[in-house]
Amino acid sequence: MIRSELLQALHRDNPELRAEEVEQVVDIFFDEITERLCDGGRVELRGFGAFSTREREARQGRNPRTGETVEVPAKRVPYFKPGKEMRKRINDA
């Protein structure tokens, strides 16, 4: 599912909301998750899963085109852990 399909589904299930209102809700939802992760926090949605970040250490990488060794700096990456209910639904499907 892509963002536009999500917006259409939400609008279809909530016809009392204008399309702009549905889009605003989705924007706020994703912005809040992103802001919390940027602050080093964690977002847990019961029954769905938890978003967090993980640290990746600096390492030596390789440019696949030239074979040259390059430094890859340390960074934080987003991580999603599905909840128990989601795992159950996926495996029972």
Short description:
The chain is α+β, with helices and mostly antiparallel strands and 93 residues long.
Topology:
Elements: H1 3-13, H2 19-38, E1 43-45, E2 49-56, E3 59-62, E4 69-72, E5 75-82, H3 84-92
Antiparallel strand pairs: 1-2, 2-5, 3-4
Word description of this protein:
The protein has 93 residues and is of the alpha+beta class. It has a single domain, classed as Irregular (HU Protein, Chain A), CATH 4.10.520.10. The chain has three helices and five strands. The chain has helices at residues 3-13, 19-38, 84-92, and strands at residues 43-45, 49-56, 59-62, 69-72, 75-82. The strands form two sheets. It has a three-stranded antiparallel beta sheet with strand order 1-2-5. α1 crosses α2 (19-38). The radius of gyration is 19 Å and the shape is elongated. The relative contact order is 0.12.
Helix content: 40-55%
Q: What share of residues are in beta strands?
A: 25-35%
How many E-type strands? 5
Mean pLDDT: 95
Shape: elongated
Spans where pLDDT lies below 50 across 5 or more residues = none
SS-derived structural category? alpha+beta
Along the chain, the helix and strand elements come as HHEEEEEH
- Level-2 CATH architecture: Irregular
- How many domain regions? 1
CATH domain class: Few Secondary Structures
Could you describe the largest sheet, including whether it forms a barrel? Answer: 3 strands, antiparallel
Using the coordinates shown, work out and report the CATH topology.
HU Protein, Chain A
Q: In order across it, which strands form the biggest sheet?
A: 1-2-5
CATH superfamily: IHF-like DNA-binding proteins
Helix count from the secondary structure assignment? 3
**How many angstroms does the end-to-end distance come to?**
18 Å
